[in-house]
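Hi Y.,

Following your request, here is the sequence exactly as I used it, all 136 residues.
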Amino acid sequence: MQYILQFFNAQILFNPRPVPVGAVGLKILMLIVIGFFLVSILLKIQAKKFDKASRLKAKAIRRIASNFTVFRFLFALYLWFVYEGLPILSMRLWFLVLVLFFISALFFPVRYYFVKLPILQKERAEKKEIKNFKIQ
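Below is the corresponding structure, written out as tokens. Let me know if you'd prefer a different format.
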């Protein structure tokens, strides 16, 4: 717990030549990269299942999966910078920036999936019902 709290110390966060991350920190970063890889694969499989039933759901899930794929590569790149101990590129600030960008990039597709998608499906069902009613 102390390791995580120390991470947000301003002297460590903005240090251009940070202290090398220990084995625990590298394992945590590697688990993040592996987790993003697994989540992106599972979401792509889920999108294929939804592809025939609901194209809108499949599209939303593909957007979320693509975000995980992109940020998997960015976190892997940051992991390499930290492992090599490159000055400025291995700053702890970049990890915080990556996490904030990931959260903001994930917010919009998730909001689309949980908020806008049910409204769109309801509107489509109403239009289909009106169209069927006019035909009869």
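The two ends are 67 Å apart (CA to CA).

Thanks again,
Q.
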